[in-house]
Amino acid sequence: MAKKLKQIAIYGKGGIGKSTTTSNISAALAEAGYKVMQFGADPKADSTNTLRGGEYIPSVLDLLAERRRVDAYEAIFEGFGGIYCVEAGGPQPGVGCAGRGIITAVELLKQQRVFEELDLDIVIYDVLGDVVCGGFAVPVREGIAEHVFTVSSSDFMAIYAANNLFRGIERFSNSGGALLGGIIANSINTDFQREIIDDFAARTDTPIVQYVPRSLTVTQAELSGRTTIEAAPQSAQADVYRQLARRIAEHTDSKVPTPLNPTQLREWSARWADHLVAAEQAEAERSRQVA
Amino acid sequence: MAILALKSRPTEISPDADKSGPIELVRYVCAIGAMQSAAAIPRVVPITHCGPGCADKQYMNLAFYNGFQGSGYGGGPVVPSTNASQREVIFGGADRLRELIESTQLVLDADLFVVLTGCIPDLVGDDVGSVVRDFQKKGVPIVYAETGGFRGNNFTGHEAVTRAIIEQYVGPWDGVREQGLVNVWSLLPYQNTFWRGDLEEIKRLLEGIGLKVNVLFGPDSAGLSEWRDIPHAQFNLVLSPWLGLSTATLLEERVHQPFLHIPVVPIGARQSSEFLRQVAEFAGLPSERVEAFIKSEETRYYNYIDGFTDFYSEYWWGLPAKFAVVGDSAYNLALTKFLVTQLGLIPAKQIVTEDPPVEHRDAIRAEFRNIDHDVSVEIDFIEDSYQIHQSIRNADFGHKPPIIFGTTWERDLVKEMKGSLVEVGFPASYEVVLSRSYVGYRGALSLLERIYSTVVSHSA
């Protein structure tokens, strides 16, 4: 009996740190001895760059554009710690259908039974943005990822995107699709940032898997084309990612998310906005009094 | 740092076999044309999830203007469709499909529904699987196949439908094997104008040597009970150059079933007897019964041929010597083999038109290079009729008018060349075909009648 392959998908608003977080999770998992594949589902095809010294690799769709038939192994590249890196790729900005590209790339690997042949423990899909169309929902359909994690900061736009993702997952959960594993709270450095994300998590009954602070170590590592795990293995930040990776590896029970409806979300954010404004005014008042 | 893929690409990438561009006078239909493959199974009804007009076009082309075969129990105009339009493109068509499946169950009586998708849902990424699985969980006999046009033609679609039924309906193997039971994977229903009669003859031959046959498609199939019985068969017989091989491989993986691949569909006594002996050996059948059957078939066959030889040897001034075949690899190979080895005709041009998958092309070429011990044929893979006709025009037919085995598309060409045309493939719009067959012992006799009736009536 083959071992059970664990497939997870990581979603979140663009620019929120999905690829950084995903690559560090992959790196930490590889370091812990797992056989990992990271599958970048983003037309920019840069999800796995920091696993390979910043180098770009040809994407599945680059190869398909050249030739109708592609051996999936031609699109798999080994990166840090033996991590198998694949980029789905996509059309140039403004043309074609990126969603169809994701479907095609995922199908190609499935059809050619790559996951079984490589004897993987974990596949992580790093998916662009939120579930904008059918194509970007493919990783959460039945038979692909079982667990979805969302990367979100305490910014309202990131939380909106997370809530949207919850709605997508809720929809697919009725038909055997992936379930929600939890929130990876990124760039959380202050108490009120933490309060906001905690409150959203509580309102949607979603666990926070890990708080990841914003750190210059990450930026330095990225600029050198590496993950924090590789560039600064002794750093505190690396340990945060290791802990996150361990939780994800041990994670077994995901659930149907309970997203806020649009009115609830609006009211929730308005309340927090009022709260923040009040806090800021109180702070300004205090500064004036001190002066 | 050099970044290397797990497998490197061949440095010399030969250009793709398909030169994209417009095709004049098509010789196959869209992948969703495989709705007629579903309809070819008794009491199976296809449901199409596609734009308006897609399903009708497949039906009219495949089943109407191609031998006027008719739609079958659940095919053609019976087929329910979502008629997806702008709304389904923007908002997704899953809900519309769900509604259609529910309504279909109320008005159509079928043993199995097969949902086939067209370009629209496959492009926008409708999760058709999840819709269909909901019905499967409720016990509705229904499967789905993704057959968007960009995935291939109706040959590809046929394989997708077959795979869907095996994976989603047939179920796992219970470990029981029935000796002497065979599943037959051969000609493409409806695309091949003569598939019904041909499958009947193939079944008759196999039963003649003592096998029990799951013929799976057509009026001679018992329908879904045969499909459910697939895993019990002793083996799969793939009787075609490539179509059906992926199905046999799937079954080999899934239920550990061996398969026998015979690329040449037999026409005439010589080929049919060789075919039966090959199958019998693979199946381990006792030779007495096999040889007795072959003997009785050959006796009958050669009795007719004996009569035919009077005509064939005396009418020498009017009969063509060189021939061309334009058609799918299965019939093209079968006809070429028969015409060369049993009638002594000379092949002038063989053009394979169904766009076979690249990985099978070398094997197809090899079969044609081995037509007889002293006859080797170089074939062309062409889909565009303008190029096909140019190629036929430029072929050397000697000083006699040629005989072309082709389709209705060759009508004008053959007039121009003052030759004869036997319509043997899609589209055959000047043939009405019911149970006529051109394969096996009996089909070969019908074929001879058709060929030489065409030739002798040429000057009438």
Looking at this protein, list some descriptive labels.
heterodimer; A: 291 residues; 2 domains; eight-stranded mixed β-sheet; 11 helices; B: 460 residues; Rossmann fold; four-stranded parallel β-sheet; 12 strands; 44% helix; globular
Polypeptide structure, described:
The complex is a heterodimer of chains A (291) and B (460). With 291 residues, chain A is α/β, with parallel strands linked by helices. Chain A contains eleven helices and eight strands. Chain A has an eight-stranded mixed beta sheet with strand order 3-4-2-5-1-6-7-8, sandwiched between helices. In chain A, helix 7 links the parallel strand 7 (179-186) and strand 8. In chain A, helix 1 (18-31) crosses helix 10. Chain B contains 17 helices and twelve strands. Chain B has 460 residues and is α/β, with parallel strands linked by helices. In chain B, helix 16 links the parallel strand 11 and strand 12 (420-423). Chain B folds into two domains: 4-168, 3-Layer(aba) Sandwich (Rossmann fold), CATH 3.40.50.1980; 176-460, Rossmann fold (3-Layer(aba) Sandwich), CATH 3.40.50.12380. Chain B has helices at 35-39, 54-64, 86-91, 94-107, 119-124, 128-137, 154-170, 195-208, 224-228, 245-255, 268-283, 287-314, 329-343, 358-369, 385-393, 411-417, 440-456; strands spanning 44-49, 112-117, 142-146, 178-185, 212-214, 233-238, 259-261, 322-327, 346-352, 380-381, 403-406, 420-423. The chains are: A alpha/beta (291), B alpha/beta (460). The A-B interface holds A 52-53, 55, 57-58, 63, 66-69, 71, 73-78, 84, 97, 99-100, 103, 133-135, 137-138, 141-143, 172, 174-177 and B 1, 3-9, 13, 16, 18, 92, 122-127, 129-131, 133-134, 358-359. Chain B: This is Nitrogenase molybdenum-iron protein beta chain. Chain B: It is an enzyme of class 1 (oxidoreductase). Chain B: Its EC number is 1.18.6.1.
